[in-house]
Automatic annotation (TrEMBL):
Keywords: Lyase
BP-aspect Gene Ontology terms: fatty acid beta-oxidation
InterPro entries named in the record: ClpP/crotonase-like_dom_sf (IPR029045), Enoyl-CoA_hyd/isom_CS (IPR018376), Enoyl-CoA_hydra/iso (IPR001753), Enoyl-CoA_hydra_C (IPR014748)
Protein name: 2,3-dehydroadipyl-CoA hydratase
PANTHER family in alphabetical order: ENOYL-COA HYDRATASE, MITOCHONDRIAL (PTHR11941:SF54), ENOYL-COA HYDRATASE-RELATED (PTHR11941)
Molecular-function annotations in GO: hydro-lyase activity
Signal sequence range: none
Keyword Coiled coil appears in the UniProt entry: no
Length: 260
């Protein structure tokens, strides 16, 4: 199934896998208010679609996203990035409960990098570059990079990228923990879909619980995170998919997970 909007192309590319392609190529996929709101709405739909178990977000071979829409900021100032619709859409991305993979080729700057930071796994092409260049136009990141980049990559690299506006390569991004795998340029989407297909074959409730438990490590204390993990696995043991997985293991057959 393929669903195309002006700004987001949504395609089923494997069983239970949805590919979302940023489709504002004339502006290098700059994250206008309209685009980010459309993305948030698409992810809200995917969150409640029982057929969707994993989502991949990609751009083009030349750019994932060049960042926020500078023309909007010039015309509207701070309100361009601080309005209820945009903030709500970013929350939709941040709170998406299912595994989310970003396939990054080429430029991944500013708001585009902040979008990639919200992915659970980032697959990057060899030629991808990551940056937070907002300081070059007299501002600073406004969609989460000062917090999320610091938590993932550490203070020193976050300061370097944010204060200098200097970008980093895919290999450095992987060394810093921003990227899970670097692949040959042009193959990030292929690898991301392969990985999404693998994840989609796992029990979906367990995958969602595991995602939530890992994210808790960034949001709470160690003791609270460990308790969250304990309650999550307690719930997993109550599901039919857990019984199916255990039975399939002992019966030496592939499991058939139904999401319950």
């Amino acid at each position: 199934m393929t669903k195309t909007s002006d700004l987001i192309q949504s395609t089923s590319v494997a069983p239970h896998v949805r590919l979302l392609t940023l489709n504002r190529t004339s502006k290098r996929n700059a994250l206008s208010n309209e685009l980010i709101v459309d993305l948030g709405a698409t992810l809200r739909d995917a969150a409640i679609d029982e057929d969707v178990r994993c989502v991949v977000i990609c751009g083009s071979d030349a750019f994932f996203s060049a960042g926020a829409d500078i023309k909007e900021m010039r015309e509207r100032g701070f309100e361009a990035i601080d309005n209820p619709a945009r903030r709500s859409a970013w929350r939709d991305v941040a709170n998406f409960p299912k595994p989310l993979i970003a396939a990054v080729e080429g430029i991944c700057f500013g708001g585009g990098h902040e979008l990639a930071l919200l992915a659970d796994i980032v697959i990057a092409g060899e030629g991808a570059v990551f940056g937070q260049p907002e300081i070059n136009i007299g501002i600073l990141p406004g969609d989460g990079a000062t917090q999320r980049l610091t938590r993932v990559a550490g203070k020193s690299l976050a300061m370097l990228m944010i204060l200098s506006g200097q970008s980093i390569t895919a290999r450095i991004a992987m060394q810093a923990g921003l990227v899970a795998e670097v692949v040959e340029s042009g193959r990030a989407q292929i690898r991301a879909v392969e990985l999404a297909d693998l994840i989609a074959q796992k029990p979906p409730r367990s995958a969602e619980l595991a995602k939530a438990a890992v994210l808790a490590a960034f949001q709470t204390t160690l003791d609270a995170g460990l308790e969250f993990e304990r309650q999550a696995i307690r719930f997993a043991f109550s599901t039919a998919d857990q019984q199916e997985g255990m039975n399939a293991f002992f019966e030496k057959r592939p499991p058939n997970y139904r999401g319950n």
